[in-house]
Amino acid sequence: MKREVIHYVQRVGFLLSGLVALGVSLYAQDALPKPYSAFQGKIDPDRDKSTPDWPQRPSPAKGAPNVILILLDDVGFGATSTFGGPIATPNLDALARGGLRYNRFHVNSLCSPTRGALLSGRNDHEIGFGTVVEAAQGYPGYNSMWPRSAASIAEILKLNGYSTAAFGKWHNTPIWETNPAGPFDHWPTGLGFEYFYGFVAGMDEQWHPRLYRNTTAVEPPAGPEAGYHFTSDLANDATRWVQQHDAVAPQKPFFLYFATGATHEPHQVPQEWIDKYKGKFDQGWDKLREETFARQKEFGIIPATAELTPRPKELPAWDSLTADQKKLLSYQMEVYAGFLAHTDYEIGRLLDNIKADGHVDDTIIFYIPGDNGASAEGGIEGHDAFTASGKPQSLDERLAHTSQLGSDLYLNQYASGWAFATCTPFQWSKQVASHLGGTRDPLIVSWPGHIKDAGTFRSQFHHITDIAPTIYELAHVPFPDSVDGVKQLPLEGVSMVYSFDHPEQPSPHKIQYFEMVGNRGIYNDGWWAGSRHLLPWDLAAHWQDKNPLDNPWELYNLNEDYSQAHNLAAQYPDKLKQLVELFDSEARRNNVYPLTPTSSVMPTPYEGTTSFVYHNGVERIPAGSAPRFTGTAHRITADVNIPDAGAEGVIIAQGGVLGGFTLFVKNGHVAYEVNSSGNRGGSIISSETLQPGKAHIVLEFTPDVVESKPGLVLARRSSPGTAKLFVNGKPAGEAKIAALGVPYFETLDVGSDLGSPVSPDYASPFRFTGKIETVRVELKQ
C-alpha cells in the first residue's frame, strides 16, 4: 500500500473515531479551532422571559487521558539498566514492569530533528529540521522554521480541551529568534504550549542554566552552592504546574512534555551521584559492551540470535590505552553514569508527585530515554579543560583536576568509546543516521489499568513520528485538515495503539528514511540500507570537506539480523539498488536535498547593523542575537557616572566561567578581562583610578585574523588579538589576548554578569553600583 493511501486511511480513521467519541459534526472536526457552542438560551425583550446560556469552549472527549511525554538527551540504547545497561535506573525499571518496552523504536540521530518530528508527527526535513538549529541553512529542509502547516501535538490537544505545558530543553526555535524581541511564534508558547519553563538551545549548564518562563528570561532560584541543579528544578516546577492545574481544573486533562537537558554535554551532577559508580568502569568499554550484551540476552531485551557488532577501527581498544588514560577515561564514565542515575531519580520524584495527586490510571506515560544515540562528540579522549589558546590540556594537566569533573568548572564530555559501549549492541552513535547506534533508542509506555501485558516487550518497527498519531487516537482527537486556516501536512507516523494488545501484529510503518549530516539510511519492511559519512567528533572540522554522495552503501536484513552485524550489499545488489532509489524518492519528497548544505551566514535580528546602543539592565541577549565579537575588530564605548562614594561592578559582559569577556570596575580601576576556555586569556587594569563624575571608557579589540568563513554557530571558535583600554581619552593599558571566544549558549549582559562569572575577581551578578548612561558597541567591517 502506498504511503499516501496509508496516510489517508489513517486520517479518516482518526476522524471517524473522534466523531463517535465527541458526537459533533464533520465540519467542526475538520478544522481547528472549533467554534464556541451556539447560544441555547432564550432572548426576549422582557428579561424575566429570557434564559441565559454561556458559550462553551470545546471540551475533550470523555475519558481522554492525561499524557506525559518524557524525553532524555544523548542516551544510548544500552545505557539504562532497563535495557541491560550498567547504569541503575530504578524508576524507569518500575515503569517498564508496569508497561511495555519497545526494542525496535527509532529516533533521528540528532536533537532538533528528533524533537521536531516527535512533537509534530512529521518527518524532520519536511518541517525544516534536517539538522540542529545552530547549523540551520537557507534550504527548506534545514531552515529551522517550524511551518504553520505542521501543528504540534500541544496545539491540537489544546484546541481540543487539554491544558499543555513544556519543561526543560527546547531546541526548535531559530537562533535568531531567541531574543527579547522575538518573534515568539516558534517558541513553545507559540506552538501550542500554554506554559514553558526551561532553556532554548541545544545545550546549557546544569548549574547555571539560562532559563525562560514562557518567553521571559528568569534566573535560577538558587546557585549550585545552595544545592541547585537544573533537573531538580525542572521536576519541582513541573510538580507545581500539575498541582496548580488540579487545584483549578481537576476535570481537565493535561499534556505535559518533560525534556531534560540531561544527559547532554556538559556532564554535570552532584558528587554523591558520581561516587556511586566509583571503580565501576575500570574494565573499559570493550568489556562493558560484552557485559551489557550478555544482560540484554539474559533479560530478553534483544533476540537470542542477535550478535554483538565489532568495535570500529576508528575507536581504540581499551587495552591499548595507557594507565593514565584509563584513569581519566574511566572517571568520565563514572560522571556520566551518575548524571543519568540522578536524572532517573528526579523523573521518578516527579512521577511520584503526580501519582500522589491521584493521577494513576487516568494518565499514560511515554518515556523515551534518548533523542538520539549516545554522543561520541567528545572524541577519542573526551574533553574537559582547554588551554588559553583553545587547545586541549595535556593528559597530566587533565588528571590533576579529574575529581572536579561534573562541577560547574568544565564543559566535560566522555570519550567516544563510552558512547559506542552505551549503544550496545549496535554500530556507531549519535549523528550516524546510517546505523542503528544513532537511530534506535528505547521506548517505555505505561498506562496502569489499560495495558494488559504489563512488563512485556514489543518488537514492531516504529519511529518517533508515530508518537503523535498514537496520542491523538488515545485522546479521541481526529487529525484536523486545517489549523487556524492553514491546511495541514498529513501525518507521517502511524498509531501504535494496536500494539498494546497485539504483540505479534505487524507494524504498519513500512518505510522510513533517515539522514543526518550526510549519513543516510532507509528502512523498508525489514530491510535497511545505510551510507555513513562523517565521524561524530569530526563534524565541525570537516563539514564541507567531503561529498557524502561518494560514500558506499551497506545493506542489512533486520528481520534476521537485529543488530546490523552482517553487511549483505555484495550478496543482494538488486535489493540494495531498490533501497537506494527509495531513499532518493523519500529524500526528494521530504526536502532532504542538498546533503550537508552550506549556504550563507544565518539571519540575524540586527541584519546589516554594525553599531549597537545598550542601556543599563539590558540582559540575557543570546549569542545569536548579540554582536559577533569573536573574529571581528570592535570598539566598546561606555559612558558612566561615578558617585562620590565610588562605584564597582560589571559594565558589560558576555560569557561565563568557561569563556567570554568582561569590562568592569573594581577598587576604583577599570578592568577588561578575557576568559579563554576557563583560563585567564588576557587582562588590562587601568593605570589610574576613576574619579567621581562622568567617565568615558573605550575598549578596542583587534583580532590577529579576521574570520570570513561563516561555518557553524556551534563550533568552538576563538581568536587571539590585541586589546587597548582608554579612559577619558587617555591610554589606560594594552594587552595581548590569547583567544577571545564565547560558548554559543552564553548571553550578553549590561550592568551585570548573570550566570557564572567571566572573571574570578568577582561573584555574579556583580551589578554596577554607579550609573550607566549608554554602552555602545561598534563592529569594524
Beta-strand percent range: 15-25%
Overall, the morphology is: globular
Helix content: 10-25%
H/I helix tally: 15
In the residues, how many domains can be counted? Answer: 2
Quaternary class:
single chain
Can you say what the CATH homologous superfamily of the largest domain is? Alkaline Phosphatase, subunit A
Radius of gyration (CA) equals 27 Å
Question: CATH topology of the largest domain, which one?
Answer: Alkaline Phosphatase, subunit A
Q: How confident overall, as mean pLDDT? A: 93
Q: Based on helices, strands and strand pairing, what is the structural class?
A: alpha+beta
Major sheet, described briefly? 10 strands, mixed
Strand order of the largest sheet: 8-7-6-5-9-2-10-11-3-12
Main CATH class of the largest domain: Alpha Beta
CATH architecture of the largest domain: 3-Layer(aba) Sandwich
Number of strands: 31
Low-confidence stretches: 1-28
Give the N-to-C terminal Cα separation.
Answer: 57 Å
